[in-house]
Design brief:
With about 575 residues, the protein is of the alpha+beta class. The chain has 3 domains: about 1-55 and about 285-415, no CATH class; about 65-265, no CATH class; about 420-530, no CATH class. The protein has helices at about 1-15, 15-55, 85-90, 120-125, 165-170, 225-230, 250-255, 260-265, 270-280, 285-315, 320-330, 330-365, 375-405, 425-435, 440-445, 450-490, 505-535, 560-565; strands spanning about 60-65, 95-105, 105-110, 135, 145-150, 160-165, 180-185, 185-195, 220-225, 240-245, 265-270. Strand 7 (about 180-185) and strand 8 (about 185-195) form a beta hairpin. The longest helix has about 45 residues, at about 450-490. The N and C termini lie far apart (about 90 Å).
Length: about 575
């Protein structure tokens, strides 16, 4: 075994350029795996942080279940049992209860932006509402982390003051002392901001707040109960109950004990676990997870061909030397282990460098994330399996070819660049075209059921594209060689006949190089196309009006039209 290590090390030292290129190519592949999986792991860890920040200082919250069918205008879901907060507070399982009332569809803005948040106009224009949700509650202590200012006694205070979420404060450029305007119909109430609390990040897939009533609103303006009653003109009716359980009490135990009361009150329990489940089932999150898994398979596919091409080059260059080793006493298994060991040796520095490079990519591109990126064992093991497993898979054919070298070949003079020209079999072209046509056939053939089309398109079409690429790769190499010989010959001022057979003399190696490059380029084109489809069709172009004029709660006479047009 020591002899094999020495032979592997000397072969790698004799070809430092090939070793450096191979290690770099595998390193890039491994770093892509770490980047994709590390980004997904960071996203999952943020689920926990977002869920905890969203719940604030409480363990769970109760929300009224949405009734079937649309609600009348101006109404929102309510608890059937108004005594539910008192019953919860009397339970030995509960430490603290805070009843709150979220009031939807109020226009809230800054003093210098009064009238700029007409919800109906914004909805018609397709603009998402930026107005925070008015929340009246009894909390004596702050629900969330207080960033600046104070938290007033919401249960007893009657001053027109409130506490704003940090996200809304940043959007309005508001701070302690800023006056917010709450419009109800034609009347506007001024609320002075006395505190700023840390606002949970509104994550796609979890739309909280009035309407859906899945939990507390992400963007809130907290006001005392008396201020909420004054603004709404209605008695305080809670539609959200924060619950803090006593130490050691399990959430399942609480839900089991209060099952009957919750059913009668038409209340649903929202906690960190339910939020994480909703986040995990979100379409964008599933899309990112699927993209990470697909990228891992593409990178593994690319790794195999990169290592295969590298090892094939080494076997071709050392054909006489390997035959001489056979003549000197090395067995076929030792020759095969020599080739496989070379692939493993190339993977070791590439794996370590890829882990470091991938971690740096995650750290650099996830800079705005609240979670510090870490390399999980699943990411490290997946990267190691892709690199080492790819090396072992790619070593099979070169090792088999090297072990078949006859000792007599050591006595045959080297043929130099003269070699056998490989032919492309017709069956390869036919099979490749048939595999590539599976997806168009699934879409265009009449009479197929929708489910059958989907099954053929996904489960036969995508593997067919991979198999078709492999079958057609030799043909593409030959066509490129034939066309490229003329262009290259013209540029280099040499007869094209000297270049016509350069790729065909070792067709398997040329095909491996072409496929490994195609995988990387196709991934790049896929990312660019996805980015284009998500951005460019929604970007303003020359057809977009230069000016949009909107009239909000304004009446003007016919005589004012010339002045308006002049403006």
């Amino acid at each position: 075994m020591t002899l094999l290590f020495k032979l592997i090390w000397r072969d790698l030292r004799a070809n430092p350029g090939r070793m450096a290129v191979s290690v770099f190519a595998i390193l890039v592949s491994v770093s892509l795996i770490v980047w994709m999986m590390g980004s997904y792991d960071t996203l999952v860890r943020e689920f926990d942080n977002d869920a905890e920040a969203y719940m604030g200082n409480y363990d769970l919250c109760l929300v009224p279940e949405s009734p079937k069918g649309p609600l009348p205008p101006g109404q929102y879901p309510q608890f059937r049992d108004p005594e539910l907060p008192a019953r919860l507070a009397a339970s030995p399982l509960v430490e603290t209860v805070n009843a709150a009332c979220q009031v939807p569809r109020l226009q809230i803005g800054c003093g210098n932006e009064r009238g700029s948040f007409d919800e109906q106009t914004r909805d018609r224009m397709g603009i998402p509402p930026q107005s925070p949700i008015l929340v009246g509650n009894h909390a004596v202590e702050c629900l969330y982390e207080l960033k600046e200012g104070i938290w007033p006694d919401m249960a007893s205070s009657s001053a027109m003051e409130g506490v704003l979420g940090s996200g809304s404060a940043k959007y309005f450029s508001a701070g302690v002392g800023t006056v917010m305007n709450v419009r109800v119909g034609t009347h506007v109430y001024d609320v002075k901001i006395v505190g700023i609390v840390k606002q949970a990040k509104a994550t796609p897939g979890v739309i909280m707040g009035p309407g859906g009533m899945s939990g507390p609103a992400f963007s809130s303006l907290f006001v005392p109960v008396k201020v909420c009653e004054k603004i709404t003109g209605q008695p305080f009716a809670p539609n959200l109950i924060y619950v803090q359980l006593k130490e050691g009490v399990d959430k399942k135990e609480f839900a089991e004990n209060f099952r009957q009361e919750l059913v009668q009150a038409s209340a649903a329990v929202a906690d960190t676990d339910s939020i994480i489940r909703r986040l995990s089932s979100d379409r964008s999150v599933r899309s990112q997870k699927d993209s990470a898994e697909m990228s891992v398979w593409l990178v593994l596919f690319s790794c195999i061909f990169i290592i295969f091409t590298t090892l094939s080059i080494g076997v071709s260059e050392r054909a006489r030397r390997l035959a001489l080793m056979r003549a000197l006493g090395l067995g076929r298994m030792q020759i095969a282990l020599l080739i496989a060991g070379e692939g493993i040796f190339l993977c070791i520095p590439a794996l370590l460098g890829g882990l470091a490079a991938g971690f740096f990519l995650v750290y650099l591109l996830e800079e705005g994330s609240a979670s510090v990126p870490v390399l999980t064992w699943s990411t490290v093991l997946t990267a190691a399996v892709c690199a080492v497993g790819g090396a072992l898979l790619a070593s099979i054919i070169p090792a088999w070819r090297a072990s078949r070298q006859s000792p007599l070949e050591a006595a045959v003079p080297s043929s130099g660049f003269i070699g056998k020209v490989s032919r492309v079999p017709v069956w390869s072209v036919v099979a490749g075209l048939a595999c590539v046509c599976l997806q168009p056939a699934a879409l265009l053939l009449p009479g197929l059921e929708v489910e059958t089309r989907k099954w053929i398109f996904f489960w036969l079409g995508y593997p067919g594209l991979v198999a078709g690429a492999l079958f057609l790769a030799p043909t593409f190499v030959r066509v490129t060689e034939w066309a490229g010989a003329w262009i290259t010959g013209f540029l280099l001022h040499v007869p094209h006949s000297f270049l016509k057979m350069q790729l065909s003399r070792n067709l398997s190696r040329s095909v491996g190089t072409a496929v490994s490059m195609s995988v990387g380029l196709s991934l790049f084109v896929g990312v660019q196309t996805w980015g284009y489809s998500m951005l460019v069709p929604f970007s303003p172009d020359t057809s977009t009006p230069g000016t949009l004029v909107s009239f909000l709660h304004t009446e003007f006479k016919s005589a004012d039209v010339p002045e308006l047009m002049a403006r």
